[in-house]
Amino acid sequence: MNALLGTEEVQELGRRLDAVRREVRRVFLGSASAVDTLLVALLARGHVLLEGVPGVAKTTLAKAFAHSLGSTLRRIQFTPDLLPADITGTYVLDPRTGSFSLRQGPVFSHVVLADEVNRAPAKTQSALLEAMQEGQATIEGESQPLPQPFLVLATQNPVDLEGTYPLPEAQLDRFLVRLVLGYPDERAEVDMLRAHGETPPECNVVLDPASILELQRVTRHVHAEAEVLEYAVALCRHTRLSTRVVLGASPRASLALLQAGKAHAVLDGRPFAMPDDLRAVAAAVLAHRLILVPDLEGDETARQKVIEEALAKVPYSAAAK
């Protein structure tokens, strides 16, 4: 166990995260696991690729989550004519002083909702990629630091793909997790209809940016035994051997899997990660990083089968050898 962390300390943080869950669930009537996936990304300082057909409350989830964190939220609607400066901002001339001043773009926010990110051309996507990877935006050759914490929730519509620019593999790899929002179950949909027309509930603020940074610090110091590290590598290596895959999970994926596993341990109130933590987040972390053989390209079921096979065939004991 990491000497820097105590069980009571992490359990207290876990209770605060439970409060975030409760607040978001008052507004978002979809899957409870979706909120946990967002929390994993937040704790691990990662970003989220949100996928789902229109009308499954992707924006509602993002807004409720950001509000519960006491953080600013800016929404960017990606379109084919969107320019990098529309995201990062630009210098504008002040006619009163004759000098240029920086007008910050929507990327200067704690939480950025990038709607239909695959509709923008590659040059615009790269501006968002720099923000995600470096925590900064380059404007007129000058680098400007972004607010911390910084979380991107990028959505893709899996149905209407005409006129889109698919995200390159290098950019997909920058998303810590992919969250697929399906249709709600029958009871949740009935509850949604019952609540329609009434004043929607608002999330109470549970955390603040300083608290989130402390949570992220704790997550980085969660202890992981050698067996856990080796299990993460073994799972990723197994995906590279699958006959369904052209390009398996990269070493960056191994690191992402470990980070997400540590975050899952914090959610569970533990200062140490276990193989079960990696198993719980494996599908969300690894599936979108796989490049399948041409015959299976776009087959979501095949992606899931690759992960399921890795989880079934790589025993915990084998990871420690």
CATH class of the largest domain: Alpha Beta
The proportion of residues in beta strands is 15-25%
**What is the CATH topology descriptor of the largest domain?**
Rossmann fold
Q: Compute the gyration radius: what is it?
A: 20 Å
The residue fraction in helices comes out at: 40-55%
- The fourth-level CATH homologous superfamily of the largest domain is P-loop containing nucleotide triphosphate hydrolases
Low-pLDDT windows of residues: none
Q: Average pLDDT across residues?
A: 87
CATH architecture of the largest domain: 3-Layer(aba) Sandwich
Rough outline: globular
- Number of DSSP strands? 11
The strand line-up of the biggest sheet is 2-5-8-1-9
Summed up, the helix count is: 13
Can you characterise this structure?
With 321 residues, the protein is an alpha/beta fold. It has 2 domains: 1-221, P-loop containing nucleotide triphosphate hydrolases (Rossmann fold, 3-Layer(aba) Sandwich); 222-321, Magnesium chelatase subunit I, C-Terminal domain (Helicase, Ruva Protein, domain 3, Orthogonal Bundle), CATH 1.10.8. It is built from 13 helices and 11 strands. The strands form 4 sheets. The chain has a 5-stranded parallel sheet with strand order 2-5-8-1-9. It has a two-stranded antiparallel ribbon with strand order 3-4. Strands 6-7 form a two-stranded antiparallel sheet. α1 (7-27) crosses α3. It is globular and about 70 Å long. The mean pLDDT is 87.
